[in-house]
Amino acid sequence: MTAHLKEKISIRKVAARFGVSKSLVQKLVKQQQAEGNLQPKQRGKPQLSHLTNAEAEVKALVAAHQDATQG
Known about the structure:
Layout: H1 2-5, H2 11-18, H3 22-35, H4 55-64
């Protein structure tokens, strides 16, 4: 929120300039001050594969049954 922080424009005027809500500008100003960036936050929980800890077992199965992967 360079317009607010560097140009010393009020949050209300910044919101009007960019056509967004005042609360969004406030949220972004807080994020900039706290984190030093305006990057989007990750949404939801990370999706973990069921095979994460099964790599050795999968490799052994493929080695034992190489013909099953062709075709």
